[in-house]
Amino acid sequence: GYILTPNVDHVCMFQHSEPLRNAYHKGFLVLADGVPIIWASKLLGKPVRQKISGSDLVYWLAEYAAEKGYSIFFFGAEDGIAQRASEVLSERYPGLRVAGVYSPPMGFYKDPELAEESVRIVRESGADICYVALGAPLQDLWNYENHHETGVPVSIGIGASLDFIAGKVKRAPLWMQKSGLEWTWRTATDPRRLAKRYMQDILQFFPLLAKEFFRSRR
Questions:
Q1: Contact status, residue 155 vs residue 186, Cβ threshold 8 Å
Q2: Model pLDDT for residues 68-83, shown as the tens digit of each residue
Q3: Alpha helices (H) along 27-111
């Protein structure tokens, strides 16, 4: 199976993407990756206990895997990033078994041969856990469509987590993560790519939340 870690952006995409909704319906574990999701859950009277982001889970799972002897496959990210991230985690958690590392070429999922090759590489690694760093929603759709074929017991979409681990991108300070301001940090560090997306998310998310709030009251 596979794990999903929704944030505000996922919630907005969920409204307009049937494939993503299908992916969410088939995921065996869904964890809130974003303080606004926690706030919304409390407002709606269905509180989620805590935020568990993919960027935190990669460390916890790596530590657990090292203790239990499980192996991890690093799939996605830019060329060289996944390899570096695997080395960093191996140094941090002695005994961690790296089943393999593969950064597929851009647009690989559009090419049947490359798409099939990516699944084969992961399957033949015999990994127990697969970190899929393709960005949302691609990573979640890839897990949904291929988790049976890869044969990996647990796959998880981790977004930019390998970039953080490898040191390519600096993660927001802990106080910003806990206060729900991580998105402002990421916007400041990559405004060209993220500013428009986050603005669109804000304009969609709060009307959705208001609609759900009043519906729950009725």
A1: no
A2: 999 999 999 998 999 9
A3: 35-43, 54-68, 81-92
